[in-house]
Structure formats: structure tokens, C-alpha cells
Fold:
Amino acid sequence: MFLARDRWLCNLSTMEKPLETIIVDSILDAIADQRLHAGTKLGEQALSDLFGCNRAHVRRALGTLTAYHVVDHLPNRGAYVATPTPQDARDVFQARRAIETVICRNAVRQATSEDIAALRVHLAQEALARGSGDRSAAVRLSRGFHLLLGRVGRNPVLLRYLEELTMRSSLIIGLYATGHGTLCADDEHTRITDAIEARDMDAAQDLLDQHLRHIEAGIRFGDDAPVTGALSMALRRDAR
Structure:
């Protein structure tokens, strides 16, 4: 299951995705695009009908999202889009800075020419998404860039933690971002990649730290959680 998600997030392609991954992808896209709000109920039967699948596929997809704290599963009530608090956001980004500092250091030491080429391809995909105004794709690809760095760093334990933290970040950004403030500036990922290619460890780590702080600075929590919406409306363009 991890390898399937890894391919989906870090090597986007036209290959067929497992059905559970399609459901996870669609829910994350709807959150990132602010079509699916905190507290929205994710009914198994409703999702099964939307995606034309059986409830076992839905349960596996919701299990993945629950494990990464994107969905809350309440006893006798079902699954709901999680509602992160301001402290949750601070904790997530503090943890990301700690973990990604080590990942970045490893990437500077271990990146091969093939790794740099893969990062450049990913940067081109990000630029295309930003240029087309596809916010959900931009958020998803931003997460993919950081996971790709995790792969370049070649520490599977850190990558596993980063997978959870970036998924939680996508939820926080999708629900509480101020416009495009939390999307990456055009050159942030590019400058990090340049520093890694140049083997400039200090610059790479500083740029990554600034990048994560910039994203966090764009998070604005209001007094009230976003209103919930109709699940069918939020996911209608993603379901197959």
C-alpha cells in the first residue's frame, strides 16, 4: 500500500491507480481545493455510490486517511473530515522543520544526477499547475516535492513520518489557507533544488526552513470552523 501511494505522490503518471488511492486522492484534492470542509461527514455508502465501488474499498481509503489524522472516525457516528486546531498546525510544522532539516542534509550528501533530474521534472509539473491556476494540483504537487526530497534523502523511517506530516499539512492548508498565500513562491522549490545540486548544505537547509515558515505564516484560523458542505457536490468532479 505504501508503494502505491509513493508512486502516486512522487511519480505522477498516467498509470492506473488502485481504487482506494483514487478515493484518497479525490478527498485530498477536494480538501485542497476548499470544496470539502472540516467536519464534513464521509459516509461509507455515499462514497461507495459516488465512486461506484463496494464499501470495503471505501473503508480501506478512510482507514488510510484516519491513520494520517486527515479523517476522524467517531464511534457510532462514522468518519468526518478532521478539524485541526491552531496548536495542531504549529505542532505539524515544527515537526516538519525538524524532520526535513535532516532529510535535506541527507539529500545534499546523497543526491545523484538522476535524483536532480527527477526533481527538475517535478518542478516543471508544479510550474504547470500554478500557471494553469489548478490550486488543488499545486497543493498536491507541493507535497509530492517534499516526499521526493525524502526519497532522495534515503531514510525510509523519516520518509514515513514525513508522509503523515505532509498529508496533515495538506488538510490544514486546504481548510485554512489565506488565498494563495500558502502556495509555494515560484522559485522556492527551485532554489532548494539548486542548493542541493550545488552541495551547499547551509543554503539548502536555510531555504527549506524559510519555505516551511512561509507556508505556516499563510495559515489563518478563524473563530469558527468552516461550514460543512454536501459530500456529493464536493466530490462530484473527482468520482468515477
Observations:
- The chain has two domains: 14-83+225-235, 86-217.
- Residues 86-110 form the longest helix (25 residues).
- The beta strands are 71-74, 78-81.
- Confidence is low (pLDDT under 50) at residues 1-15.
